[in-house]
Fold each of these.
Amino acid sequence: MAKKILIANRGEIVLRVAKTCNKLGLEPYGVYSDADVNSPHIKYCKDAVNIGGRLPSESYLRIDKIIDAAKELNCDLIHPGYGFLAENYEFSKSCIEEGFVFVGPSPNVLELSGDKARAREVASKIAPILLGKEVSSESDALNLAEKIGYPIMVKAVKGGGGRGLRVARSTQELSDAFISSTKEAEMSFGSSRLYIEKYLEDPRHIEVQILGDNYSNIIHLGERDCSIQRRHQKLVEETPSLALTDTLREKITQTAIEIAKRMKYNNAGTIEFLFKNDNFYFMEVNSRIQVEHPITEQVTGIDIVEQQIHIAAEEHLQLRQQDVRSRGHAIECRINAEHPITFAPFPGTVTRFIPPQEDKNTRIDSVLHSGYSIPSFYDSLIAKVICFGENRQEAIATMRKSLSSFRISGIPTTIPFHISVLNDKRFLQGDYNTSFINELKPAYSKSGEIAAAILWQLPKRIRFIEERGAVNPWARSRFLEVESLDMMEKDYLQSRGSEN
């Protein structure tokens, strides 16, 4: 096996890949932009090259700069992580043409899966899909929408991460969505191609983790439920999904394998489905390692990054389906530097960062530290908390404890939101879908300001609550009556008086 690997990314995924590299005897190398000169991810690399720029388009999305860095560092492999160039067909092709091993799917697979219209066509031979197709003009979109009926989902053919995606419930909304999606798709992906499909109201979002080698061997590592999202971006994931019976689980995982085989899929990836009323519909393929992959690792004991590297090295898949044995339950909460009510990004300086203590049931993926200044140019994800239990109740209890002991000061985060979710009746019963956040009770402006103020005093606030045995208003579900928001104000004012 080659000895040097360039991790062409930033943030916690660099640490994650580097850990596996060290385990396998590989030397991890990195890159960083001008905005990331002091980024913590650099210290986890044996060496790193400044690729300039501050915006992603000037740095992490520049194929030429990544290739030049790999040459300068004399690397043998290139791991793209997730986001940026991870699913870019041209990047994988360039890596191979320049003599590097690309740790990801082949260019042919990326070209197919990255074209969502083509991927839908292939998957439709195996799995149900929602009515829809690619459209070349606004008039085409309007005519097709009349045939299949509103509401309609507008999607970028080359899209991902919720960008270029809009829901339209009328002709006017579709006209507006077509224009805005076209612009965003062109800006984000360099392609203005769009397709529309029937919008499924309030589904679950379930994805199946697959591994495939270059010899047509494909297995699955179970499913993940990623239904708690904001603006089509995931916030909480868990495995296994409470929505699936054993029969449905067998059906959806086998369908995922058949789709992957039809695509001649290799390396790690996910087959994504929408699920409602015991029916599932193919959505798309994510041809990379996912942000939420740790929960699958927790229940299976399988290092997915390690499997990626072995597959890229032209080795046969080291696992058979019968070797995959899941146990227990795992949950991941994505901690973002965002306001927990509005989800507005909050870049700034982290004055205090003390994560929960890690043990066999608690894993923290983050490269943050006290004093680090979060740039405004990148995704707001700053940490991931992954908790395991022998059952779902244990996993939830461990996650509650971990989040309550997390100390982040200087910026607001989504930790209070996650605490609220873990105390929500519908989440506890497993009765939730992708509309979970949309159905939260609105926070009035006064309560919103109180909530924001609480954020800045979170460490003191938790100690105060523990000392007086009071109920933390953040632990009250926002699905309860508005009085819970009034309690937030009352309790906060009392806590301020105590602290003074």
Amino acid sequence: MSHTAHIPSHRKPRRSASKLALRAGVAGGVLGTIAVAGAAGPANAEPVTETIEMPTLGSLDVGTNLASAVAASAEASQQEALDQSLQSLEQAALKKAAQDAKKAKAEADRKAEAERAEKARLKAEKERQEAAEAATRASRSEERTRLSTTSSSSTGSSDSSDGGGSSSSDDGSSASDSGSRTQAPSGSAASIVDFARAQVGDSYVTGGTGPNSWDCSGLVQAAYRAAGIDLPRISYQQSSMGSSVSLDNLQPGDILYWGSRSGSYHVAVYVGGGNYVGAQNSSTGVVERSLDWDPPSGAVRIL
């Protein structure tokens, strides 16, 4: 039995690899010293036969395993940090995408609201324009009624003063007026009529002077310019030109007006055959119409 058998068995704490290497080096040095001493002793000395047990260096594997564990832990920590970084980036991307989607929805809602407002504005503008046109027609009708009443009163007074002789004169003028409505224009009148009719179908634009859009006075001015005659630009100025003529004695090229002669709000060109050409409004554009469609208040002759 070993002399250390009475010592209870216990596990000694592990030493580091560096300490184990140091102990191995010391042991190697001791063994070298013993070998030298044996060689220097007497020649007849008996050889040393005692076996010295060397400590094992298997514990060095523990240090290697520990280093591997530390490296693995560092790698795991680095991977975890990378995962957290990627997660942060994903969260930031999701947050930005949500913000962009919110902005896009707000912009879409704004555009939709703007479109609804524009449609409402256009509808209101159309209704306003239709109301204005209706008011204009009503004003024209009222003016025609007033002028008709005034004309009837003047005719009645003339008939009373002239007696029966005026009847034959009226019949003659009526026949002459009927013929004037069907006669073909010639000369400057033909140029004016041809130009006016060539614009039928063009659009109406306030302030328009051609070549494809007109207002009433712009069309009349351009038609007369085609015949080499310069007219003022405004309708009431045009109706103040020339000499006043009866609606029953019209000739092609005469200027028709609506309203009073010095305060007309609309003009057109008489083209013969009981018709006129005018830039009416934005709904109809430039049209040729019968005098009965919208009878004018009066007419003037420039030619």
